[in-house]
Automatic annotation (TrEMBL):
Signal peptide residue numbers: none
Boundaries of every Recombinase domain copy: 4-72
GO molecular function: DNA binding; DNA strand exchange activity
UniProt cross-references to Gene3D superfamilies, sorted A to Z: Putative Large Serine Recombinase, Chain B, Domain 2 (3.90.1750.20)
Protein name (record): Recombinase domain-containing protein
Pfam families tied to this protein: Recombinase (PF07508)
Entry superkingdom: Bacteria
Amino acid sequence: MVYWSVSNAMRVIRNATYTGVKSYNKSRSNNFFEQKRVNNLDMSTYEYANGDFPEIVSQEIWDKAQKLRESRIKPSLVS
């Protein structure tokens, strides 16, 4: 029997790979010499390309899940 935890379900909901696309621009290097990775936390700047693998979740269901997830996020007190 497979048990789903909240963290496993949230990983599927947040990861666009399950819709059959690859996402780019999630992180970048801070400069040429240090080569430290800096995460891009702004999901609106991600770039998506069709992958060569089948989708597990339809795009329509994934979009609905994103809207629901964003509506439940508590506003931060620090801007």
